[in-house]
Amino acid sequence: MFIAFVLWQLALLYAVPVVFWDFELAVYWLRKLQNGRSSGPDIEWGLDAVQVRIVTIDNAAVVQETVDSLPDGITDIVVIAEQPIEVEGASVLAVPPEFTCAATHKGRAVEWARRVHPSDREYILYLDEDTDASALTGIPSNADIVQFRERPAQSDGLLPYLAEIHRIGFNVEQRSFPFFRLPFYAWGGGIAIRSSLEEDVTWDTETIVEDSVFAWRAVLEWGATIEVADIYLSNQAPPSVWSMIKQRRRWLTGTRQQQELLPFQYRLMYQVRDLGWALSVFAPLLWVASAFSYAGIIEISLLPVFFPGAYIVLTIVLLGHVYAWSIIGVLTYRPPVPVWILLILFTPVIVTVHSLGALYGLVRPASGFAVTRKVVNGGTEPTVRADPNVGPDSSTTTGRIAEDGGNRPEK
Amino acid sequence: MPRLFVRSRGDRSNARVRAADRVVGAFTGTVPASLDRTEAMEQWLDAPLDVQTVFEPWDTGSGAVAALFERLTAIWEAGRVPLVTWEPFTPTPAATPPDVLDRIVAGEYDDYLTRWGQALTGWLDGPDGNVDTVDHRRLYLRLMHEPNGDWYPWAPAGGDCTAATYVEAWHRVHRLITDEGATPGRVSWIWAVNHTDIGGVAAEDLFPGTAFVDLVGVDGFNWGGSQSWSEWQSPAEVFEEGLERLRSRTSLPVCVPEFGCTSVTIDGTDRGRKNRWLRDAFAYFDEQDVSLVSYFDVEKETDWQVFGGSEGENTIRIGGTRYQTYSGFRTGLRRYRYE
Known about the structure:
The complex is a heterodimer. Chain A contains eleven helices and eight strands. By secondary structure, chain A is α/β, with parallel strands linked by helices. Chain A has a seven-stranded mixed sheet. By secondary structure, chain B is of the alpha/beta class. Chain B has a single domain (21-337), classed as Alpha-Beta Barrel (TIM Barrel), CATH 3.20.20.80. The chains are: A alpha/beta, B alpha/beta.
């Protein structure tokens, strides 16, 4: 009876964010049919309207590749670093160690840059240090915040890469954010912010998910508009399963810490999404086993004692969504055939790995940042040393830039 | 559930509150040719302009009055209130007699003014021709502007007239137009002077009186290094004297119906400096409680334009057309306009 209760509870808990995801996509398609963009469809800002800011600790080689990937029309490139580094084609601003403000880590660095290096460009485009931005042609919107799409590239580990493809599939929900009262999250690795909005909102908030918190404050306090641009910026997937777990843990922790900013219904939905994400660790595997059990392929029954038929239908629907995210990710990425075969085969396992970090963050919230290694040319040699002051479980939350690829809580 | 999370189309409920007494407009050129650019400008600003300024001579020719009000209708239907700068050029500067004010006072233009007043009243009534119905219209009327300069024939320092004649001519025009039904509240009369006296006639001596004016205004430009006689001036340096003098003369609301800034400095073009000037200007107007401002967005003597001019900081493409822009204008406008 208890097991049946748990199985049903898991399925229902997961069903809420899944239904909401369906709802988001329905809203997106409906508004798209109505041409309800937040900005005119024929508006594009030129590259001269963009100042690019890249935040790093001291990873000159990786940043140089990012700078080199930028189209020629972008001439205003700023690198915000912890110490002076040499980057050809960019102005390097080193954050003084003595600088303090309410913001910490990356937020502190960009807040310092905002104060000392104002820009007359219409937009500030924030990029991760390891971004391939060659697809950039301008800012295809007149919204105050323009979120670019992400396309992580494989670095060291295959499993994190597969998990990223799967995650990108789920993240198509981002397309609906312009039509919602608030975006559920923002990705700081490719986000253009109107410079005047940045001046108004500032980064001076104590948080480890500065990009999402900025977007929330911008919308709630300043009425900012948001658009999602169909331009993909590529950066590196976490190099190992462990680094991915730590990354997911930070995302979940950060957004949970800042939820007091959100309206009640958003807080509630976030709680359910977080729980559903974190507790789905073994759910897809259970669902597969249940389906096999129902079909008589295996003999151990993993069906609950009550409403087993309804349960199997629900779990197949949920499992269908999980696979749909993998398929959408594959269609977005268009990776080599062996990769998508692996992804489809191992989707339940990948969801488990993906959710482990969330479960970790739920049970033991992160109190600081770890640095995700970024490598040159997608190779295997890490060129960045981790910030010695900030470990994965560190309680030192002041100072220093963190490079975690932004704030992407999902599922 | 949808309403809890989803915004309705066009919903800007999170947006900051519009200040009721902050009206923004622009002169973008002749109408209707400039309407497309003005619409594009609004797309750039992501906000409508409240007012569109036009310059109109006293054209007594057949059909000229009707043609004017057709143009004003186009502006109104685009969602803007026309701000008519009504210049007693008859109808060109070259054809305008230097004693045009004396002629106005002598009643030489009464027929034209009466016709104009009738046409205006009809236009204000709207398509149904009835007063105070939902389709009624409004208008700002800036008559005989910058009389304290020496470049217009209606200015004592520029034409063959006195300050007293100017005031008398204003009263006559005001009476003839009002008598036709264009009453205060439907028409806002703007008396606007140059930010500083040029030619020895004090602006204060030209004030028609509070019974004949709804808003008083100061026109001012930062000419920077664009002219041999000019230098870079901050917004306060341009406007402070004029605003103070008007405020000491009357308690009427103040406006800035014409302002602009060049990017030309004595060291060459400095677009960043113009950008900052624009932002500072709006902040200054806000601080000074200026209730209406209208930008002179046309390249005339220098590169005044902030949208679609030859110079700019950032390029935006709207509907296939590329426009040079200054972010300082957009930023300043939004901060000025919203509480």
